[in-house]
Amino acid sequence: MVDRTLEIQEGVQSNIAANEWMNWLGMNSTGFVMNSTRIHYPFEMCTSSWVSWLFNPARSEITSLDSGNIDDILNNADVALVNFYADWCRFSQMLHPIFEEASNVIKEEYPEKNQVVFARVDCDQHSDIAQRYRISKYPTLKLFRNGMMMKREYRGQRSVTAIADYIRQQKSNPIREVQDLEEISSLDRSRRNIIGYFEQKDSDNYRTFERVANILHDDCVFLSAFGAISKAERFSGDNVIYKPPGENAPDMVYLGSLTNFDLIYAWTQDKCVPLVREITFENGEELTEEGLPFLILFHMKDDLESLEKFQQEVARQLIGEKGTINFLHADCDKFRHPLLHIQKTPADCPVIAIDSFRHMYVFPDFSDLSVPGKLKQFVLDLHSGKLHREFHHGPDPTDVAPGQPIQDLASSPPESSFQKLAPSEHRYTLLREKDEL
């Protein structure tokens, strides 16, 4: 692909400012070179290609989805990338030519029907489909495998190269085949490993295992062994085990039917997706868009003891709150800015805080983490509005000991820091706002 250039003539207003182009493309400040008259984009997209597409649309096989065909098309597609858009949204308009050109590129590499499907949904005409998939911004690119929507949508750069590379990655084999069981003993035990031992590759058991791996390969490492290599681990038939993180952590064996996709998927997801997840700058947008407040442990990267305590107490006290708040941990050094919002530094870590996307609230004392019910009450106080109320109006009278004067401790809580990781208005047309907590 050749680099294309967007000319900005002196004295002529550009429709889209340079920084908006950068944000829309998903580029950082090093993604392009700029001078006073010209911006060089190292990607296959510019205003000229957009205008050209409007008048000379490229031939491509983009399937338009509606309520009558969506299930049939998606269910029969190995991989489908669906563009949820609105014609009035300028970001959607800008994506159309790129999406179509990426479709053309991929079609040449995967020509067989249903190997890869590029599709689109006009959310104005089909609001029922938009509601079904909880579309909250335009454009949204969602990936489907055999009709099942993947949790992680496409959030990468909006260029032909980036989208095509993403599809190639999705089509690559997510399972590493081992040639000797000695390879298992040298696995990286900081990762979550799922290992399948099968008599043969051409089997229903392995095909089900492969379907699961295609969905969860971002969360676990998947490995397989066949025939004579795997025989020692198949004393009672084909076998799937989970090796959790930690050198001394015991293996866990899957005991259900290996051809029951729903059963093995649920078991594997439970093992691969931890209750307490790490937040990074790479997954921050995805996590904020889940719409749940954050309960975050800030800890030094090598402080695994505090992380283990936090994980244990979350499992012990808060398992019932799993659908109401996200349990996360963050590297103190990488997330210095949120710490500053709550008047903390890495030297104060470990620190526990809640970010409601409006305000941040600090758990008073990390040493109280193991006090029965203490962490749970902190979360319940968020849901009841008590944390927000007390920040604005001081402690509730019921929390003051008899005879003790009520002090005016009202203050403004620190503003949310993690809301800045949410989808940007320079990249999407946002359709909703979260209520204040």
UniProtKB/TrEMBL annotation:
Cellular component terms, GO, for this chain's entry?
cell surface; endoplasmic reticulum lumen; endoplasmic reticulum membrane; endoplasmic reticulum-Golgi intermediate compartment
Source domain of life? Eukaryota
Manganese as UniProt keyword: no
Give one GO biological process term: protein folding
Enumerate composition-biased segments (Polar residues).
409-419
Q: Does the keyword Signal apply?
A: yes
Q: Recite the UniProt keywords alphabetically.
A: Chaperone, Disulfide bond, Endoplasmic reticulum, Signal
Q: How does it assemble?
A: Forms mixed disulfides with both ERO1A and ERO1B and cargo folding intermediates; the interactions with ERO1A and ERO1B result in their retention in the endoplasmic reticulum. Directly interacts with ITPR1 in a pH-, redox state- and calcium-dependent manner, but not with ITPR2 or ITPR3. The strength of this interaction inversely correlates with calcium concentration.
The function of this protein is:
Mediates thiol-dependent retention in the early secretory pathway, forming mixed disulfides with substrate proteins through its conserved CRFS motif. Inhibits the calcium channel activity of ITPR1. May have a role in the control of oxidative protein folding in the endoplasmic reticulum. Required to retain ERO1A and ERO1B in the endoplasmic reticulum.
User: Which PANTHER family does this one have?
Assistant: ENDOPLASMIC RETICULUM RESIDENT PROTEIN 44 (PTHR46295)
Its recorded name reads Endoplasmic reticulum resident protein 44
